Amino acid sequence: MALLAAAALLLTACGRTADDPGTASAAVVSDGPATGTVSIWAMGAEAEKLPELLRAFKDQNPEVDVQVTAVPWPSGHDKFQAAIAAGTTPDIGQMGTTWMGEFAEAKAFAPTPGNLGAGSFYPGSVDSTKVGGGTFGVPWYVDTAVLYYRTDLAHQAGFDSAPANWDQLRALAAAMQQKAGARYGISLPPKDFQAFLPFAWSAGAKLATDDGTKWTLDSPQMRDALAYYQKFFTDGLADKHPSTETGAGENDFVKGTVPMFIGGAYEVGEFTKLGGPDFANKYATATVPAKESGTGTSFVGGSDLVVFKQAKNPDAAWKLAKFLAKPEIQAQWYKMTGDLPAVPQAWDDPTLRDDPKLAVFGQQLKSVQSPPASTRWAQVQETASQQTEQLTTGTKDVDAVVRAIQSAATSIGTGR
């Protein structure tokens, strides 16, 4: 799923209650090959490419028959919802991280076996599988966002390296506007609260309490981040009303009219198409700047693999999940689909390691977060986005916006 336009994951609860989805004990994946028929539902490009990847799984497990069903992303949520209600789920499914909280709370998933090796994944990606004190499924692939910037225009503006903190980010945006002919120094979404969240997290803000029972959106850290974000718009460094046409942002970046933005790995391929192979020499990627120094915290999304409680062949399903999490398989999957590996070891593959633009994403994945896996987050996010728009357009100040977001979130609740 595309980053900064999609929500993501969760906070780990400290304990369990009678209603927690994590009360069931986790099984252990048995030794030996997978056997029997195992059904998997996958989405979009993943569903198209998966049968080819699974030839190796079949070679290793000759007595297994994997049945892949393609499910369109737009109807995926409703299809899973209906299957859970009717008791007709597949054994294993590709689950968008934004859906994990809802379906885990509905007790649709089997707990992750303790011997599946959660420690082999990026911690931020594992967080997406943790709901209400339990762990469900394993990460399959991840999305995150990093800073893209035009190195040629940055050099023209007097900068020869990526911004390392918030002050430098703002200074670079201003310099490229003043000295390198950019219309705006940076592209920032004016009315998308989730796109703003890397700034909040990098400032140390938390969205909810550790037990997930209360929203904590009104904090000094959140106010600092919103004030910093707002200033890009009020000072004319970011467009208050950017074009919503598909590809407009990419075209602005290639033309140099807006030479900096935060985006996902798929943009690398887009820029090769738009700017040609030589354009790669005109831009670079960098980790999201921290407030003071170091690597800031970006957003993480992607897809998980879950085994359903109603699975007919859970042992084979977990063995399939374990196979898809192998570093060499994750690296091969990236080459087939462009999906970023959730396993750090996979980033040792030369295709990822030796590409400086892509390697940055592996570095960023060491510092990522996501919203809590709450069934109410979508409502909170919608209200917060409306308030963010009033902030960036100057209709409201930071204090009014933060109080409005917290008040609305408290009324909506966390669903726990």
From TrEMBL:
<dbReference type="GO" id="GO:0042956">
    <property type="term" value="P:maltodextrin transmembrane transport"/>
</dbReference>
<dbReference type="GO" id="GO:0055052">
    <property type="term" value="C:ATP-binding cassette (ABC) transporter complex, substrate-binding subunit-containing"/>
</dbReference>
<dbReference type="GO" id="GO:0015768">
    <property type="term" value="P:maltose transport"/>
</dbReference>
<keyword id="KW-0813">Transport</keyword>
<protein>
    <submittedName>
        <fullName>Sugar ABC transporter substrate-binding protein</fullName>
    </submittedName>
</protein>
<keyword id="KW-0732">Signal</keyword>
<dbReference type="InterPro" id="IPR006059">
    <property type="entry name" value="SBP"/>
</dbReference>
<comment type="similarity">
    <text>Belongs to the bacterial solute-binding protein 1 family.</text>
</comment>
<feature type="signal peptide">
    <location>
        <begin position="1"/>
        <end position="18"/>
    </location>
</feature>
<dbReference type="Pfam" id="PF01547">
    <property type="entry name" value="SBP_bac_1"/>
</dbReference>
<dbReference type="GO" id="GO:1901982">
    <property type="term" value="F:maltose binding"/>
</dbReference>
